[in-house]
Amino acid sequence: MPFLFSCVNSRKATYFNDLGDNASFATIEIPEPIIQQNDLLSITVSSLNPEASRIFNLPNQSEVRSSTPTGDVMEPAGYLVDKDGMIRFLMLGAVKAEGLTKSQLQNNLRNALLSRKLLVDPVVEVRFLNFRVTVLGEVTRPTVITVPGEKISLLEALGLAGDVTIYGKRDNVLVIREEAGKRITTRVNLNSNEIFTSPYYYLRSNDIVYIEPNKARVAGATRLNQLLPALISALSVVVIVVDRLAQ
């Protein structure tokens, strides 16, 4: 085990090696998430007439049962974006959602309610119910993180996963992202301060972060696989000898 630790480069095991004293970086603008197929949306409508607005909020108040390895749980139903990119909105029918930002969908719904004279001066708020990111690989606790605030940085996600282990490659973090129906991959170097100006500093909904194992981890796993059959054989011989001596 000491040999494996000695194989780990100490500079590669730390963050932001080239970060100087009193460094400052321009604030990264967080792009507004784009609504995609299978997104689950909470859409809240309010107006001067609460009774008239209530009907549009019923899908947010209902729940659906889903099965998990730990049992059944109740989750908010919300509005599901179907395979055609549409949501089924009460009294408006099919409304295009895919490809829009939350602000754009809010404006479209508000204008539709006004044009059909369903509400007077309505206020529409759209939120994601399924904003989550996944962290895999050489972290303490690989996990799926639900993000109620719809804002999470790569560093926050790694912290919630228990941080990168000593065997993780901090200089070659893989981020997988879906955009316009395509999966895009990029590599991020956490040893460098470039992460603070990277467009991947803030994660988006459904991003996957993968921490690759370094050479020390691979070498240790390979060595263990080589020794395991011999250890099992030796243990079997010991068991046989002990059994015969006991007779």
What does this 3D model show about the protein?
The protein has 247 residues and is of the alpha+beta class. It contains 6 helices and 12 strands. Strands 9-8-12-10-11 form a 5-stranded mixed β-sheet, with helices on one face. It has a 3-stranded antiparallel β-sheet with strand order 4-1-7. The chain is elongated and about 90 Å long.
Question: How is this structure best summarized?
Answer:
This protein has helices spanning 2-6, 50-54, 58-61, 102-115, 154-160, 215-246, and strands spanning 40-46, 63-68, 71-76, 79-80, 86-89, 93-96, 123-128, 132-137, 143-146, 173-179, 182-188, 208-211.
Give the helix tally. 6
The total beta strand count reads 12
- Could you describe the largest sheet, including whether it forms a barrel? 5 strands, mixed
Oligomerization state? single chain
One letter per element, helices H and strands E, the order comes to HEHHEEEEEHEEEHEEEH
Shape from CA axes? Answer: elongated
What is the strand arrangement across the widest sheet? Answer: 9-8-12-10-11
- Global structural class: alpha+beta
Strand content: 25-35%
Q: Kindly provide the radius of gyration, computed on alpha-carbon positions and rounded to a whole number of angstroms.
A: 26 Å
Helix content: 25-40%
Which regions are unreliable across 5 or more consecutive residues at pLDDT < 50? 1-7
Cα distance, first to last residue? 39 Å
Give the rounded overall mean pLDDT: 82
